[in-house]
């Protein structure tokens, strides 16, 4: 990409071809996935352990900050996986211990902005739905109750489809940040014009099945081994304690990154296709 991004998308996103390429980008590189996810998992465990120590402290700032803690390890994984998808394993191979850099800070800032854009309207619609449902349930007119209830359900469904659409429209800032491009939210909005539905289909097709599979695995593990049993804890003195620790702190968190990696790869591929981005070749000296 040049110093000035193109005014509009240079090519339409081919959804079916991008789905195949996305799966290949993730499941075709299992060793690199493990390498990319190792440090974010360790960092996440450390951060949340520290957060647990502050859990007894009542603070509005701490309460709000809880929404953004996971964005720190996510920034390291996101930068690593976007770079791997865009640059390939030669130039974009993820380091085992990444060194914090400006691109991580920029990525985190964009992630915080997008997260805030997501959480504020979601919270508003949740409160509005609760209030609307309580008012409709108090009405004795069955017809009016049905209309109000259907309206609330419709609003919630439209809203929860609209939010992912909005997120994908803004998502090009993340691969751009990972490869140090000068790129802003307005550029992403411009380049994803007429591409929002395609992005939603691509992201949903690759991410939703993987997320549901991870959820199913966690439910089955809990049913068989009781991994969510509050009485259990990590212990190196017994096999049950060791198994609990491995599953709770390693296996399930690592699996949770699979749908994230799929969506990240999908966004990277869409960014490359729609903006015409190519890696800048190093100048010969």
Give a brief rundown of this model.
The chain has one domain (15-275). The chain is built from 10 helices and no strands.
Q: Can you tell me about this structure?
A:
There is one protein chain. The protein has one domain (15-275). It is mostly helical and 285 residues long. The protein is globular. The protein has helices at 15-27, 30-53, 60-65, 71-91, 102-138, 142-169, 173-178, 185-191, 196-225, 239-275.
Name some characteristics of this structure.
single chain, 285 residues, mainly alpha, globular
Distance between the termini: 22 Å
Biggest sheet details: none
**Cα gyration radius (Å):** 22 Å
Share of helix, binned? over 70%
What proportion strand?
under 5%
Topology as a string of helices (H) and strands (E) = HHHHHHHHHH
The beta-strand count equals 0
Question: Count of DSSP helices?
Answer: 10
Structural class: mainly alpha
Overall pLDDT score: 82
Low-pLDDT parts are: none
How many individual domains? 1
Shape, principal axes of CA atoms: globular
